[in-house]
Every structure is written in structure tokens, then in C-alpha cells.
Write a structure and sequence with these properties.
It is built from ten helices and five strands, in the order αααααααβααββββα. The chain is mainly α and 291 residues long. The strands form two sheets. The chain has a three-stranded antiparallel sheet with strand order 3-4-5, with helices on one face. Strands 1-2 form a two-stranded antiparallel sheet. It binds a DNA duplex (21 and 21 nucleotides) through helix 3 and helix 6.
Length: 291
DNA sequence: AAGTCTGACAACCGCGAGGAG
DNA sequence: TCTCCTCGCGGTTGTCAGACT
């Protein structure tokens, strides 16, 4: 049961780092590079746990760390990203050059969480409570307003869309063609989540009902390094955002990008999810995307 | 001036993912 | 396929400085 400690704690320094320790660590990493954190302390002559060394380097000593106050732009971005991703600090930090996940997390906890909370309660629009009382599921969904439906997206050219399951299960062999099939299906609902009857693609209120289907054809230009999922939109918890994460070098956090498109823009006039529109978005953006 | 409170941020801890053997 | 190990992440705690009483 007991978990093996990451290192023997006896005889190790704890707490704040001295400038001497910092110097040793920086010099060692300059010479030998990052990594092998477990081996680093004895080799460098530091009485610290490897984990502690890693943290100190990543959060404080790295040369590319940006110091100083978080700008308004950065703040805005953090709020938006948090609305989309939840507490995935490393991903958020990946979008803010020079900022660390720890820094962003701290900033959120001390400043932004309150600010956002105030905005929500003071803003007066009491998300979704007043309006329709469709069904309990909707209300429950709204209550969990910023909930990320699927925080851990499925890797590579797959889309998770709630409530397609039935269609998919009825036609498991048809995955390859699912996109065109769906986009061409007639659809009567004006907005995706308002009903569960009939055919056509609608994004429902229930986050529990997930399914997946293949969109390889749509994502050709991204080749394979793409993750995609849906999330409730921050300001309009009734709406779902499509979020794409471009994964580079096989790791989501390497230079992971994140882009999102409002579902509004991806519904055709008859209320159906328009995969052709999505395809256009992807191709356009891929052309401009330099990161 | 002293004590208390609060905010900011550095550091620690436990867990899970993923790679190596 | 399984086990072990390392690394990275996110939650939590500790510490310190400044504000307040």
C-alpha cells in the first residue's frame, strides 16, 4: 500500500532554496542539461530531492521565465482558457510564454477565481436559471456551468460528441463515412441541445452520453497530431465549444496549441452541425497557424 | 509599536501516465 | 504482458511581507 517515497528524506534540505543551491543547480543544468532529476542531486552535490530540484528549475531558475506582473491580456487569456480547460494549468501555461503552471495556478487562486466568481454572481445573468425549464438535465448542466465535458481528450483525429452514440451504435461499420452522412442528414431542431427526438446531429445537455466517431477526412491537413473535444462555454454554459489541441512532438504539452470555435459558427441554418464548416475552419486555421 | 490578518507565491506531496526492461 | 521507475501535474501547505487594528 504504502507508496515508495521519491527519495530518502533524511538529511535533505527542505524549504526555501539558498542562492548557493540555486547556483549549483543552474551550473549543473547548464553543463548536463535537464532531466534525470533523481540522479541530479547527488551528482550536483545538492542535498535536495530530485523533485524539488525539478520544481525549482522549472518554476524559478529557468532562463526563459518571465518575471513581473501578469498583464491584462494574459489575465484575460487565463480566464478564457480556464473556462475552456478547467484546472489544466500546464496547458494554460503552454499558451503563455514565460509563465509557469505554478504561477498561473497561484494567480488564479489568489486573484482570478474571486474575480470570476464576482463577475458571475454580480453580473446578473444568473446562467440559465431564469430561462427555460426544459428538463432537469439541462438545469443540471447549467449548474455545472464551466464543467469540462471531457477534460482528457482522445488523442488523434477523433471527435467526442455527446449523443451520437445511438447513431454510431446502430451503424458501427459506418464510421468512416459518418461525417458526410451526418452533415447531410436533415435536422429539425433550431439549436442542438433542445431535443432528443428525431435524427440529425444535436449536441445534447447530458455530458454523460459521449460517443466518438472518426473524422479523419476532415483533419487531413493536421495529419495526426490533433485532439478534439467539446466543452461548455464559459459565458454561455448552454453552449458547447469545440476545442482542438494541436499536439506536437507527440506530447500535448510540448508546444500544445489550443483553439476553439463557437458551435454557433458550425451550425447550418437548419440547426445541424455542419462538418463542412468545421473542415473549412480547420483548413483555414491550419494555414495560419505558426505555433 | 505590537499583534493579527491577509495575500502572494514558493515549495511539498501524492497520484497517474507512460516508458523501459 | 507485467512490473518498476521516473516524470509531470494539480492540489495543498508553509512562509513571508505588507496592511490593518
Amino acid at each position: 500500500m504504502g507508496r515508495r517515497p521519491c527519495c530518502a528524506k533524511e538529511g535533505l534540505n527542505r524549504g526555501a532554496w539558498s542562492s548557493k543551491e540555486d547556483k549549483i543547480l543552474v551550473n549543473y543544468i547548464k553543463l548536463h542539461g535537464e532531466g534525470k532529476w533523481r540522479d541530479l542531486p547527488p551528482r550536483a552535490g545538492l542535498k535536495r530531492c530530485g523533485k524539488s530540484c525539478r520544481l525549482r528549475w522549472l518554476n524559478y531558475l529557468r532562463p526563459d521565465i518571465k518575471r513581473g506582473n501578469i498583464s491584462e491580456d494574459e489575465e484575460e487569456l487565463i480566464i478564457r482558457m480556464h473556462g475552456l480547460l478547467g484546472n489544466r494549468w500546464s496547458l494554460i501555461a503552454g499558451r503563455l510564454p514565460g509563465r509557469t503552471d505554478n504561477e498561473i495556478k497561484n494567480y488564479w487562486n489568489t486573484n482570478l477565481s474571486k474575480k470570476v466568481q464576482e463577475q458571475k454572481s454580480g453580473g446578473g445573468d444568473n446562467n440559465g436559471k431564469s430561462s427555460s425549464n426544459n428538463d432537469s438535465e439541462v438545469q443540471e448542466g447549467n449548474a455545472r456551468s464551466h464543467e469540462v465535458i471531457r477534460t482528457k481528450a482522445v488523442r488523434c483525429t477523433r471527435v467526442l460528441i455527446p449523443q451520437l452514440k445511438t447513431d454510431y451504435e446502430n451503424n458501427p461499420g459506418g464510421t468512416a463515412d459518418m461525417t458526410s452522412q451526418l452533415s447531410s442528414q436533415p435536422c429539425s431542431s433550431a439549436r442542438p441541445r433542445e431535443s432528443h427526438e428525431g435524427s440529425g446531429l444535436r449536441l445534447p445537455q447530458s455530458p454523460d452520453f459521449l460517443t466518438e466517431f472518426n473524422v479523419d477526412g476532415l483533419l487531413l491537413s493536421y495529419e495526426e497530431n490533433l485532439e478534439m473535444h467539446f466543452q461548455r462555454e464559459q459565458d454561455h454554459p448552454d453552449d458547447l465549444d469545440i476545442v482542438l489541441e494541436v499536439v506536437e512532438n507527440g506530447t500535448a504539452d510540448a508546444k500544445g496549441g489550443l483553439e476553439s470555435w463557437e458551435t454557433d459558427e458550425l451550425f447550418s441554418s437548419n440547426g445541424c452541425f455542419d462538418f463542412n464548416a468545421l473542415s473549412s475552419f480547420l483548413n483555414e486555421d491550419n494555414g495560419n497557424d505558426s505555433e
